[in-house]
From TrEMBL:
Main location: membrane
Membrane topology, as annotated: Lipid-anchor
Membrane-spanning parts: none
Name listed for the protein in its UniProt record: ABC transporter substrate-binding protein PnrA-like domain-containing protein
Manganese found in the keyword field: no
Family to which this protein belongs: Belongs to the BMP lipoprotein family.
Residues of the ABC transporter substrate-binding protein PnrA-like domain: 96-334
UniProtKB keywords: Cell membrane, Lipoprotein, Membrane, Signal
Gene3D superfamilies: 3.40.50.2300
SUPFAM superfamilies (UniProt xref): Periplasmic binding protein-like I (SSF53822)
Superkingdom in the source lineage: Bacteria
Keyword Transcription: no
Length: 337
């Protein structure tokens, strides 16, 4: 996995898997030596995509070499799956990804969105509608999944972003600390002001991701100034915009966010400023501004939910579904994560 920064005078490669302490230069020196700013992308500089590939590359219960992109042959019947998630936040493009997996595995997929005021009977209701598989995304849905698993021992349930120890529940999660760390590396390499910010959620996971992000920044730019804002999970677009406005005014030129409505607000504020002539970026996760994000996103952090869900669909079809299994998807590093 390589980070690539491209200019008209050549490419500088950076491999986060190598000893980062060997990296020379602070980023600004490299740009000044070339006599151009990396942000004048239309005339002098182009940033070639910094890909942070999370999840789906390798799973600790998946065998290597399996091609998830080819349809499974011999489907006897179309099966039914329900996918339930929160109205706000969640995995970007989750519906498109799950539909793709359903097409490969021969599943009709129904989608259900619930508000932040989670109805604990929602999952139970879906169980009663005869679905072969029910997938629930997000920790807020964990109580509903646990309740349904207890009441309906024959139901087949998948908990995304949760870890539930029940005989009829498989858990799927993603190694987000890896993406947070690599986002920090990207931010450290990309910043010209040496001021970088992280915006996450005010909970233990948000704090953990903040620490991973800071470690990535410090690995390539030890003297960088890092600001962190941990917001309520229910923070809306306006909160994201006001947070970004304050950070950009303080001299920050790159903000990394972890998605949700606040993340969309951060990108909206960044986009308005870039279009007014400012030179700044975001590193986004699960953004809601796909059409405009290319103008402001230095990098993005995404998960390949389709591969994770597809593996469970195949287990159900083959009668090999097993509960009390926790699949963790992360970066492909030559060994299981």
């Amino acid at each position: 996995m390589f980070f690539i920064i491209g200019t008209k005078k050549g490419l500088a490669g950076y491999n986060p898997g190598s000893k980062i302490s060997q990296y020379k230069g602070d980023g600004k020196e490299r740009v000044n030596n070339q006599g151009v700013s990396m942000f004048l992308r239309k005339r002098w500089v182009m940033i070639v995509v910094i890909c942070i590939l999370l999840a789906g590359m390798t799973a600790c219960t998946q065998s290597k070499g399996r091609d998830e992109g080819k349809p499974t042959s011999g489907h006897q019947q179309t099966m039914k799956m329900a996918y339930i998630s929160m109205e706000e936040g969640g995995i970007r493009d989750s519906e498109d990804q799950v539909k793709k997996a359903g097409k490969v595995q021969g599943f009709d997929v129904a989608f259900k969105k619930v508000s932040n005021e989670v109805n604990q009977d929602e999952v139970c209701s879906l169980v009663n509608q005869g679905y072969h598989l029910i997938v629930a995304e997000g920790k807020a849905l964990q109580p509903a999944v646990e309740r349904s698993a207890e009441q309906y021992p024959d139901a087949k349930l998948v908990a995304v972003g949760q870890q539930i120890d029940r005989t009829n529940v498989e858990s799927i999660d993603f190694v987000r600390k890896q993406t947070a760390y690599l986002a920090g590396v990207a931010a450290g390499l990309g910043s010209l002001t040496n001021q970088i910010a992280f915006v996450g959620t005010a909970d233990p996971e948000g704090h953990f991701l903040e620490l991973s992000f800071e470690a990535g920044v410090k690995a390539v730019k030890p003297d960088a100034k890092i600001s962190a804002e941990l917001l309520d999970k229910k923070a809306d677009i306006q909160t994201g915009r006001s947070t970004a406005r304050s950070l950009y005014r303080s001299g920050v030129d790159i903000i990394t966010h972890m998605g949700g409505s606040a993340g969309a607000g951060i990108e909206s504020e960044a986009l308005a400023r870039v279009r007014s002539g400012e030179k700044l970026w975001v590193i986004g996760s699960q953004s809601g501004l796909e059409e405009a994000s290319s103008e402001v996103q230095l990098a993005s952090m995404d998960v390949h939910l389709d591969k994770a869900v597809s593996s469970v669909m195949q287990e159900v079809r083959e009668g090999k579904f097993h509960g009390r299994r926790h699949k963790v998807f992360g970066l492909k590093e030559g060994e299981l994560v």
